[in-house]
TrEMBL record, chain A:
Gene Ontology biological process: amino acid transport
Transmembrane intervals: 20-42, 162-182, 194-215
PANTHER family: ARGININE ABC TRANSPORTER PERMEASE PROTEIN ARTM, MEMBRANE COMPONENT OF AMINO ACID ABC TRANSPORTER
Membrane topology note: Multi-pass membrane protein
GO cellular component: ATP-binding cassette (ABC) transporter complex
The protein's name in its UniProt record: Amino acid ABC transporter membrane protein 2 (PAAT family)
Record keywords, A-Z: Cell inner membrane, Cell membrane, Membrane, Transmembrane, Transmembrane helix, Transport
Keyword RNA-binding recorded: no
SUPFAM superfamilies listed in its UniProt record: MetI-like (SSF161098)
Database matches in Gene3D superfamilies: MetI-like
Gene Ontology molecular function: transmembrane transporter activity
From TrEMBL, chain B:
Protein name per UniProt: Polar amino acid transport system substrate-binding protein
Keywords, alphabetical: Signal
Residues of the signal peptide: 1-23
CDD domains given in the database record: PBP2_mlr5654_like
GO cellular component: cell envelope
One Pfam family cited in the UniProt record for this chain: SBP_bac_3
Family affiliation: Belongs to the bacterial solute-binding protein 3 family.
Highest taxon, organism lineage: Bacteria
Naturally occurring in which organism (per UniProt): Rhodobacter viridis
SUPFAM superfamilies given in the database record: Periplasmic binding protein-like II
Cellular localisation: Cell envelope
Xref: Gene3D superfamilies: Periplasmic binding protein-like II
Domain called Solute-binding protein family 3/N-terminal: residue spans: 25-253
Predominant localisation class: other
Automatic annotation (TrEMBL), chain C:
Annotated Pfam families: BPD_transp_1
Keywords: Cell inner membrane, Cell membrane, Membrane, Transmembrane, Transmembrane helix, Transport
A single cellular component GO annotation: ATP-binding cassette (ABC) transporter complex
Annotated family: Belongs to the binding-protein-dependent transport system permease family. HisMQ subfamily.
PANTHER family named among the record's database cross-references: ARGININE ABC TRANSPORTER PERMEASE PROTEIN ARTQ, CATIONIC AMINO ACID TRANSPORTER, MEMBRANE COMPONENT
Keyword Heme applies: no
Gene3D superfamilies per the UniProt record, alphabetical: MetI-like
Record-annotated ABC transmembrane type-1 domain positions: 21-222
One function term, GO molecular function aspect: transmembrane transporter activity
Official protein name in the record: Amino acid ABC transporter membrane protein 1 (PAAT family)
UniProt xrefs under PROSITE patterns: ABC_TM1
Length: 232, 258, 236
């Protein structure tokens, strides 16, 4: 089969899968981003037991394969169906898509928290002292000085994390979600047509390249005040 | 016969046996997640109807067989890539697969069936009745093809192994599961998990999906091996060995499905 | 109940899981040297003065790092065997089909991925050697080659170690992906145990804890190695 022919039959399915991949990644990363600032603050300034708990959570997520975490949540939740039904949570766990998103949020949140913590620690103490000196409240210092600067520092690392998550989302195919990888495997298992793997690879690369470009554009915007002094 | 000629005969017999045992090493490819046909035991070895038949055939053709486990999705590419020499893993003989590999005569007949939870209200299986329902099957199988083609409006989910599909059937994620008759009969009758569920509807025997039955796959160029397996298969059918293995697992003769 | 599930022997799954851990460790240990070597080659290409080599190095790291590991694994596992046999059929049909064992496929696929990330770490480490040291070397009459062997390479270990440590942890975790092909590593042993016992939560949790233990153990060793590597360095 020629490449054009194979592409025209496979592409609609692959694009459909790519859409699911994007939704999975976007949802996972965005929800994790909602929780990570608070967790990063606790990780730095919280009470000791909370700090210890967070450290254990982050260490566990970083020390275990995502595939194992996914199986633990997806098949593991089946073992507690009765209890989950009692709590009214079973309808959530019943859907593999939800399970995948949940695991991605838990996973990405751990990484994002660590990245943000690094960003907050890298904010020059002088800036914070200056903000205090002009009478800002703690909340204001956080909102106006610490977080804006911390995000600027952490921005490239956060972008890397999103790409890692996008690649990791391919594992959702193993728990029956038809993402890009799932569609690819489905096509291959029916037709044994090897080129479909390369078509999928090209799509993943395309997603990465476009994402990196967009992320850099946002970074330029975030740092535009810093370039002004260089006279551009 | 004198003692000497007896000894001589024994020696010759031993020599020829040793000769054939050394003559050929074959690798038998199977899946290992498809009870009672092929499954992994707690001691790590693979057992089941497929294995018993396969190893018996090995003995008959004088080969020394090593068992290789391979996931279903990669089982045909694995044969072509020479990871093993033949597949005995309850594989239906279908036109699509024949383009890749060649098959022996069927070693048992197969039909597919639907499984539903015991309290399910689904009795008819059409695209209309299953619209929006969650239908599960093992990926890359004839039953997956069937589910995808017959129920385009259902939410079809494909699992890497039948075991995982059954696990999700038991945990209540699936409204309907499509699978091979015999393993699913085993599932609902003999397993703790299977108590949740029952077989439903008419058996699916449409040759467009189940083909001519279940065969052993070999590489297309290995015609000689295929012929020898066929001959050995006819032999064990004729001398009752097949029946002995059959009765170890099933109450009906699965060769004829009667 | 628990004791029998995880016991060592024909009734329990303890020995299978342990055998799986052994495969996991062997796989990671076998991948490390291959991946490092390949990583050096790629790093050398990306630092080369020739634009063609640089482009190739850049292309390799970009493609490998942009693709899901599991896709790479599928391509190598299914593709290498098929491709190799097709080539042999074409050029040397007398050899017949050759076997491509899953372990080797796993090592190659993991090494290809590892090399792409290792190349970036190594490139960074080479560039982390202070310019002044290189200039000093040149000033006392060393050749470029001597500067490389006597100044850059000895310090590489120290600069690359933190990054390499992370890659090792990723490698340990990535070995779980080979369970999706057909290698009896820890993850697959767990899956098999789940298939029979129908206790997914118990067994996947056990697997997670084992991986966690392996990673924590590795981190301990890495911290020591880093302390050792930095012993001669002045601290601020």
């Amino acid at each position: 089969m020629s490449l054009i022919e194979s592409l025209s039959t496979n592409l609609p399915k692959l694009l459909d899968g790519a859409e699911t991949t994007l939704i999975l990644t976007g949802l996972g990363a965005a929800l994790a981003a909602v929780f990570s600032p608070g967790l990063a603050l606790i990780r730095l300034f919280g009470p000791t037991p909370a700090k210890m708990l967070l450290r254990a959570y982050i260490s566990f997520v970083r020390g275990t394969p995502l595939l194992a975490q996914l199986f633990l949540v997806f098949y593991g939740s089946g073992q507690f169906r009765a209890e989950l039904t009692g709590l009214g949570l079973w309808s959530f766990f019943r859907d593999p898509f939800n399970c995948a998103v949940l695991v991605f949020v838990i996973n990405s949140c751990a990484y994002q928290t660590e990245i943000l913590r690094g960003g907050i620690e890298a904010v020059p103490p002088g800036e914070i002292e200056a903000a205090r000196a002009i009478g800002m409240t703690r909340a204001r210092v956080l909102a106006r000085v610490i977080f804006p600067h911390a995000y600027r520092i952490a921005w490239p690392a956060l972008g890397n994390e999103v790409i890692l998550l996008m690649k990791a989302s391919a594992l959702a195919s193993i728990v029956t979600v038809f993402d890009l990888m799932g569609r690819t495997r489905q096509i291959f298992s029916r037709s044994f047509e090897f080129s479909v793997y390369f078509e999928a690879a090209a799509l993943y690369l395309l997603i990465t390249v476009v994402f990196v470009f967009l992320w850099r554009q946002i970074e330029r915007r975030l740092t535009r005040h810093m370039r002004r002094t260089q006279g551009s | 016969m004198t003692l000497r000629s007896k000894l001589l005969a024994c020696a010759i017999a031993l020599l020829t046996m040793a000769g054939t045992a050394q003559a050929e090493k074959l690798r038998l490819g199977t899946e290992g997640a498809y009870p009672p046909f092929n499954f992994v035991q707690p001691d790590g070895t693979i057992a089941g109807f497929d294995l018993d038949i396969g190893l018996e055939l090995c003995k008959r053709i004088g080969a020394d067989c090593e068992v290789v486990a391979q996931d279903w999705d990669g089982i045909i590419p694995g044969l072509i890539a020479n990871k093993y020499d033949f597949i005995i893993a309850s594989m239906f003989i279908t036109e699509e697969r024949k383009k890749q590999v060649s098959f022996t005569d069927p070693y048992y007949k197969a039909a597919m069936t639907h499984v539903v939870p015991k309290d399910s209200e689904i009795t008819e299986f059409t695209n209309e009745t299953l619209a929006g329902k969650v239908v599960g099957a093992q990926s890359g199988t004839t039953q997956a093809d069937y589910a995808v083609k017959m129920y385009p409006d259902a939410d079809v989910r494909l699992y890497p192994t039948q075991d995982e599909a059954s696990l999700d059937m038991a945990s209540g994620r699936l409204d309907v599961m499509v699978g091979d008759m015999l393993p699913l009969l085993d599932f609902v009758q003999k397993t703790e998990d299977g108590k949740c569920c029952k077989l439903a509807g008419e058996p699916i025997t449409d040759p467009a999906f189940v083909g001519e039955g279940v065969g052993i796959a070999v590489r297309q160029e290995d015609n000689d091996l295929r012929e020898r397996l066929n001959k050995a298969l006819a032999e064990i059918r004729a001398d009752g060995t097949y029946k002995k293995i059959n009765d170890k697992y099933f109450s009906i003769d699965i060769y004829s499905m009667k | 109940m628990m004791e029998t599930l995880f016991s060592y022997g024909p009734q329990g799954w303890g020995d299978e899981l342990l055998a799986g851990v052994w495969v996991t460790l062997r796989l990671a240990a076998a991948t490390l040297p291959v991946g490092l070597l390949l990583g050096f080659v790629v790093a050398a290409a990306s630092l080369s003065r020739r634009p063609v080599l640089r482009a190739m190095g850049w292309g390799y790291t970009t493609v490998m790092r942009g693709m899901p590991e599991i896709l790479t694994l599928f391509i190598v596992y299914n593709g290498l065997g098929l491709g190799l046999n097709r080539l042999l059929d074409h050029f040397a049909p007398q050899i017949g089909a050759v076997d491509f064992p899953p372990f080797a496929a796993g090592v190659i696929a993991l090494a290809l991925v590892f090399a792409a990330f290792a190349a970036e770490v190594l490139r960074g480490a080479f560039q982390a050697v202070p310019e002044g040291q290189v200039l000093a070397g040149l000033a006392i009459g060393m050749t470029g080659r001597q500067v490389f062997w006597r100044i850059k390479l000895p310090q590489l270990w120290r600069f690359a170690l933190p990054g390499m440590g992370n890659l090792w942890l990723n490698l340990l975790k990535d070995t779980a992906l080979v369970s999706v092909i057909a290698l009896d590593d820890l993850m697959r042993a767990t899956k098999v145990a789940v298939g029979v016992t129908k206790q997914p939560f118990t067994f996947y949790l056990a697997a997670c804890l084992i991986y966690w233990g392996l990673c924590l153990g590795s981190e301990l060793v890495l911290t020591r190695l880093e302390a050792r590597a930095n012993r001669g360095v002045r601290r601020a």
